[in-house]
Write a structure and sequence with these properties.
Layout (H helix, E strand, L loop, with lengths): L1 E7 L2 H12 L4 E7 L10 E7 L10 H4 L3 H12 L13 H12 L4 H9 L2 H5 L4 H15 L9 E5 L6 H13 L6 E5 L5 H14 L2 E4 L3 H12 L5 E5 L5 H7 L3 H7 L3 E8 L4 H11 L6 E5 L8 H10 L3 E4 L10 E2 L2 H8 L1 H8 L1
Helix pairs in contact: 3-5, 4-5, 7-15, 8-9
Length: about 350
C-alpha cells in the first residue's frame, strides 16, 4: 500500500485536493496539526493511502502548482533572503499568518504565495501590521482589473440562480431611469415559464418597454432597429443553463453574443458557489464571449478568494458587485479597494475579535 501526504490550510481542503489528484478511492489515514515552526507548509499534515495502484507520476508544473512540491517551492521563494533572529525557526510569523489567512479565504496557493512574497521587504525592515495590511490591499488591487461601466447594449449570461434578472432590474433603475435614459428590457429566456413574466413585472413597475424573443434572428432584428434610433439603454436577459444543458440550449446564442463587439456581455456568477464549480462554470460560459465578470450574493459567503482566482485566471475585469435583493441599492460598481477588503474579510473579522 502506498501513501501520499498533503499539507493544507484545512483537512477538508486536503481531502478535496487528494480526491482530485488521486481519485475517489484515496483513503484518509490520519491528520495532524502542524507546530508553529512548520506552519509555512500548511496548518495540517494529512496522509492518504493509495490502494491497488501506484502514486501518480509527475505531470509538469501546471498540475504540480496545486500540489505539495509547488507550495513548498513558492514558500521557499517568498521567504528567501529573510534572516530570522537568532534562535528562531521557520519563516517570519507575519508571512505565515498572511499566507494562511489567504488560503483560509480560498485564494489559490500560488496566488497567495505571490501576494505574500511582496510583504518580505516590509517584514525585513520591521513594518507594523497596518502597513503590511495596506501593502497587501494594494497588491490584491494590482492583480485585479475593474470595469464598472455599461455599454449601450448589455447582455447578462450565467448559470441559473445567479441573479441575472434581478441584476438587470437594478441596472435599469440605476443606469437607465436614474440617468434619464430611455430603457428597454429584452428576454431571450424561453425555457423558464416564469422568466418572461418576472421581467414583465419588473418592466411594469419601472415603466419601461420589454420585448421577448424566441430566436437569435429576432434579437438581431430588434437590435438593428435600435441602432436606427431606439432606446438609450438595452438590457438583455438570457436563460441560465447548468453544465449538462449548455451544449443543448446554448448553441445558437453563444456564438451570436461572442461575435457581437457592440454587446457588453457580463458573466453573472454567485460568489457563494464552490470554488471548483465556479471555475468550471466560468469555463463553460466563456463560449458566450463575456467581457466582464459580475458577482452576486456576496452576503452569502465569507470566503471571497475565488473572485480573485477567477479574475486572475481569466484576465477579465470585474464590473459590478451585488450583495442583496434590494432594487437598486444592492448593486455597485466594483473597485479594487472594496474587492481587496472583501477578500481579506476573514482576516479583518479575526482582528476585530
Amino acid at each position: 500500500m502506498k501513501t501520499q501526504t498533503y499539507h493544507s490550510g484545512s483537512v477538508e481542503a486536503a481531502i478535496r485536493q487528494a480526491r482530485a489528484e488521486l481519485g475517489e478511492e484515496a483513503m484518509l489515514m490520519d491528520s495532524r496539526k502542524l507546530p508553529p515552526e512548520e506552519r509555512h507548509l500548511g496548518a495540517y499534515e494529512v496522509r492518504f493511502a493509495l490502494t491497488g495502484r501506484e502514486a501518480p507520476a509527475s505531470t509538469g508544473i501546471d498540475e504540480l502548482s496545486r500540489g505539495l512540491d509547488e507550495i513548498r517551492r513558492l514558500l521557499q521563494t517568498l521567504t528567501q533572503g529573510y534572516r530570522p533572529p537568532a534562535g528562531a525557526a521557520g519563516p517570519p510569523p507575519p508571512l505565515a499568518e498572511w499566507y494562511q489567512d489567504l488560503i483560509g479565504a480560498e485564494v489559490e496557493p500560488e496566488i497567495a504565495a505571490e501576494l505574500v512574497a511582496g510583504l518580505v521587504p516590509l517584514v525585513e525592515r520591521g513594518a507594523a501590521p497596518p502597513e503590511l495590511e495596506r501593502e497587501m490591499t494594494a497588491q490584491i488591487g494590482a492583480l485585479l482589473e475593474v470595469a464598472g461601466d455599461l455599454g449601450r447594449v448589455v447582455a447578462l449570461v450565467g448559470p441559473p440562480g445567479a441573479g441575472k434578472t434581478s441584476t438587470l432590474a437594478k441596472m435599469a433603475v440605476q443606469y437607465g431611469l436614474g440617468r434619464g435614459l430611455s430603457t428597454c428590457l429584452v428576454t431571450t429566456d424561453n425555457y423558464r415559464v416564469a422568466a418572461a413574466g418576472q421581467l414583465q413585472t419588473f418592466a411594469s413597475i419601472l415603466g419601461v418597454e420589454v420585448s421577448a424573443v424566441q430566436e437569435t434572428r429576432q434579437l438581431e432584428q430588434i437590435l438593428a432597429g435600435f441602432r436606427r434610433g431606439g432606446p438609450d439603454l438595452v438590457l438583455i436577459d438570457t436563460p441560465g443553463h447548468g453544465f449538462q444543458e449548455l451544449d443543448q440550449h446554448g448553441g445558437e446564442l453563444a456564438p451570436f453574443l461572442r461575435s457581437r463587439q457592440d454587446i457588453d456581455v457580463h458573466l453573472v456568477l454567485s460568489a457563494s458557489t464552490k470554488p471548483r464549480d465556479l471555475g468550471r462554470m466560468v469555463d463553460r460560459y466563456l463560449d458566450f464571449g463575456p467581457r466582464k465578470l459580475l458577482f452576486t450574493k456576496l452576503d452569502e459567503t465569507l470566503s471571497l478568494g475565488p473572485l480573485l482566482n477567477e479574475a486572475v485566471r481569466t484576465r477579465l475585469p470585474i464590473s459590478f458587485l451585488s450583495a442583496g435583493q434590494r432594487i437598486p441599492e444592492d448593486l455597485r460598481p466594483a473597485t479594487r479597494e472594496e474587492l481587496a477588503d472583501l477578500i481579506l474579510n476573514r482576516r479583518k473579522m479575526a482582528v476585530g475579535r
